[in-house]
Amino acid sequence: MSKTIDRAELSNIPVRVLIVDDDEAHAQAVAQSLERIKCDCTVATSGAQGAALVEGENYDVVVTDLKMDDVDGMAILQKAKQELPDAEVILLTGHASVQSALAAGQHGAHTYLTKPLDVSELRNAVEKASTRIRLIRRNAELARRLDEKFGFEGVIGSSPQMQKIIETLKNVSPTDSTVLIEGENGTGKELVARALHQNSPRRNKPFVPLNISALPASILESELFGHEAGAFTGAASKRIGKFEYANGGTLFLDEVGEMPMETQIKLLRVLEDRRITRLGSNDEHSINVRLVSATNADLKAMIEKGTFRRDLFFRLNVVRIYLPPLRERRGDIPLLLEHFREELCKRSGREVEGFSKAARKALMAHNWPGNIRELRNCVERMLVVDSDGVLDVDDLPDDIAPVSTADDGPGGSDAHGADNLIGRPLNDVEKYYIERTLDLCEGNREEAAAMLGIGERTLYRKIKEYDIRSGS
Question: Is the pLDDT confidence value at 213 over 80?
Fold first, then answer.
């Protein structure tokens, strides 16, 4: 059963508050007053520290002093609006003026409070800001519920395998757990990683992908951890690595099984310490990154061969998601065909009526060694060569052979046949579509039930009720 978050649960999630004030005693007093109304408070005792936390962490409300020696409150406000667009910012000042109040409002401050603070006024301001935050959370949850039936932020499927994966994604996305995605090339591993990021609290921070297999071993560590000028031949200037670039967000390491052993050791150290050291430097830098990895290799077999570290595998494999090849979930093909048709038609400005039954049957029968990537490319090719507005067998690539079909039933091809059902009893319409779906699935009842959006037991009952021989 799907686990969803109701309003009460959303209301009980603490609001994260960052307090920025170079008067440490005042900052701690503000934190204590807000913690009494169940806020999760972090204190920064300088503008520079506050700016770094805004850049690297996630907060719902930022309470900042206006006048500070290094980075002032207006700079914190502007940085928060850039890095945390959903967050509310409350400015505090002991030197109130109409001009500064107007400037704060123009830059998006939630409110503007004067010192000495009235604790009730501060709490009311934070509670109003938190009300808006909870509304955003509820709306995000409603959006997730609307997507529950067939997908999750672009991860599409109605087969039992994909519904189980989607359920896992919904449960794991709000956490910071490392995730290992396994599957053949073309199964959509990066798409799943992006869905994890987009549905996490880190969604407003960077999603940074890095394909390990595309990089020579000699520059991989520089790409991951960065380097200082002169660290090695050709390092003319300092370079920020992917870990630092992804700070606060998600780093996606594709084909992690291709990582050299010496780099595996350093990656394990980073995951344990949450700190990186650029090549050519002795200084460590704290990082706050969620790591998602992907591979088409059998890492357990690599461990036995001594080419992949067992301890690193356990750190990467906190949550495992296996993406089955398309040939093992053919019931998802019709949904994917329609998804890609709509997406590519919108992008190209083309309009097509749909797929003919003969084309659908050929596409369902194909083995799809290139998986979803191959399917998408196939639909794009059919759109490019089509000349009559119906994607038919004459538009198929040469390596996808048409499959002989039985009588198409009333009206011929799927593109027009349903018109002849107008005015017929509903039982005839239901029987027709069940028969056509079973034909498309070559009699596979599990796939047909998934395509029709009904349970297998319901399908069995309908087959018996209508005496449908193709389902036997």
Answer: yes
**Radius of gyration of the chain from Cα atoms?**
28
Statement to judge: residues 362 and 291 lie in one domain: no
Bridge partner list, 93: 114
Evaluate whether 194 touches 207 at the Cβ level (below 8 Å).
yes
Asked, for residue 165, whether it belongs to a domain, the answer is yes
Taking all residues of the chain, what is their mean pLDDT, rounded to a whole number? 84
CB 153 within 8 A of CB 330: no
> Residues 340, 374: contact at Cβ < 8 Å?
no
Q: Give the separation between CA 310 and CA 294, rounded to whole angstroms.
A: 16
Among the candidates 141, 165, 184, a domain finishes at 141
Q: By the 8 A CB rule, do 46 and 72 touch?
A: no
Q: Of 216, 220, 276, nearest to 243 (Cα)? A: 276
* Pairing of the two strands 61-65 and 16-20: parallel
Mark whether 360 and 307 lie in a shared domain.
Answer: no
Question: What is the spatial distance between Cα 464 and Cα 472, in angstroms, rounded to a whole number?
Answer: 9
CATH number of the domain bearing residue 122: 3.40.50.2300
Q: How confident is the model at residue 179 (pLDDT cuts 50, 70, 90)?
A: very high
Both tokens of residue 369? Answer: 């060694």
Give the type of residue at 49: Q
Strands 284-286 and 275-277 turn out to be: antiparallel
21/109 same-domain check: yes
CA distance linking residue 345 with residue 347, whole number of Å: 5
- For tokens 């002032």, the residue is 72
Distances (CA, A) of 467 to 46, 417, 445: 77, 21, 15
On whether residue 470 sits in a domain, the answer given is: no
8-state DSSP, 256:
G
214 falls within a domain: yes
Structural domain that includes position 281:
156-324
Q: Rounded to whole angstroms, how far apart are CA atoms 339 and 286? A: 42
The verdict on 185 and 271 lying in the same domain is: yes
| Tens digit of each residue's pLDDT (9 = 90 or more) over 311-364 | 999 999 999 999 999 998 888 888 889 889 988 998 888 888 888 888 988 898
Q: What percent of the chain has pLDDT over 70?
A: 86
Cβ 372 vs Cβ 186: under 8 Å = yes
What token pair was written down for 168?
Answer: 């896992």
Q: Residue 148: its pLDDT value, please?
A: 47
* Cα–Cα distance for residue pair 377/369, rounded to 1 Å: 13
Measured between alpha carbons, how far is 104 from 219 in angstroms, rounded to an integer? 45
pTM confidence score: 0.60
